[in-house]
């Protein structure tokens, strides 16, 4: 692989998103297209909670091994975005995600306990946390670049769910209100960092592979959901069983 210009590297990263981001997954199309049952939506929200809850742990591990105070200062905002600042019951993304699961009729204590989690979800999310802890800082930051593509999937998800499910309200989906500007700010910083610091062909290949890996994490989470809950469904022992199943 030859050394790419920063612009060529960005184009390759965006190509990965166009091809591999979970916006293309059949389960996402079911979700925003109104084809999911309430049980499938509940299972999606319950399992996605684990991803949301582990994001600040992932980010804290990145900060802990970062020597650059400018990067640490920038990355700290991600912790408060997800954990909140303790200013209210709906402060932070994790609390707002629990508001979503509340609105879908799931018991909050059950969701937070992780007892109903799919094994595939746990393995995928844990793999992402370990990746960020163990790879280079450049690769760890590059793996966050799925946020480049999240505003589009969020707009599709919110519009589709509000239009197609009578058990979903705008208040239920309030988690997503703040995410597009947060994701743009975070991805702008990460993309600039990667373009400036991937200085060799090896660096650039590692950056591209990191984004491919992260896309695979998100894709495999939806694979696990589809296998377990889309008819006929194969729910593994111990995982969430919707009412009536």
TrEMBL record:
The lineage of its organism: Bacteria, Pseudomonadati, Pseudomonadota, Alphaproteobacteria, Hyphomicrobiales. PANTHER family: 4-AMINOBENZOATE SYNTHASE (PTHR40279:SF3), PQQC-LIKE PROTEIN (PTHR40279). Its EC number is 1.3.3.11. One of its GO terms (molecular function) is pyrroloquinoline-quinone synthase activity. It catalyses: 6-(2-amino-2-carboxyethyl)-7,8-dioxo-1,2,3,4,7,8-hexahydroquinoline-2,4-dicarboxylate + 3 O2 = pyrroloquinoline quinone + 2 H2O2 + 2 H2O + H(+). Pfam families: TENA_THI-4. One of its GO terms (biological process) is pyrroloquinoline quinone biosynthetic process. It is an enzyme of class 1 (oxidoreductase). Residues 11-223 form the Thiaminase-2/PQQC domain. InterPro entries: Haem_Oase-like_multi-hlx, PqqC, PqqC-like, Thiaminase-2/PQQC. Ring cyclization and eight-electron oxidation of 3a-(2-amino-2-carboxyethyl)-4,5-dioxo-4,5,6,7,8,9-hexahydroquinoline-7,9-dicarboxylic-acid to PQQ. Keywords: Oxidoreductase, PQQ biosynthesis. Pathway: Cofactor biosynthesis; pyrroloquinoline quinone biosynthesis. Belongs to the PqqC family. This is Pyrroloquinoline-quinone synthase.
